[in-house]
Amino acid sequence: QVQLVESGGGLVQPGGSLRLSCAASESRFTFGNMGWFRQAPGKQRDLVASITKSHNTIYADSVKGRFTISRDNAKNAVYLQMNSLKREDTAVYYCWGYGDYSKRNYWGQGTQVTVSS
Fold it and tell me: pLDDT tens digits, residue range 70-85?
C-alpha cells in the first residue's frame, strides 16, 4: 500500500530555517488534502498547516507568517518551509495525506525537528 516518506528534519539554531519534504511511494496514488502535523513529548498531535489540491492553505496561529506549505501534484509531494524557527517549534513532524479514493488518512513516519542553541 502507499506510504508517505519524509525527509529534511534535523537540528537548527533559533532563527534558522529548515525545509521538510514528503512524497508518496506510489506515483499513481491521488491525495486530496495534505498537510503537516507535529507532536512534542507529552502533547497531542496538532495541525501545523494543510493545503488543498487547489493550493488553498491553512496555518496554525503559532506558525503563521513563518512557515509556508506547498505541494506538487505531479510529484505527489508536499513541503514545509520553516523560517524564523523558535525553540517551541521543536517536535516530531508528520506528513499527512487524505486518499481521494480510499477515503482514509495516510501518515509519514515522522521526522525530528530540534531548535536549540
Answer: 999 888 999 999 999 9
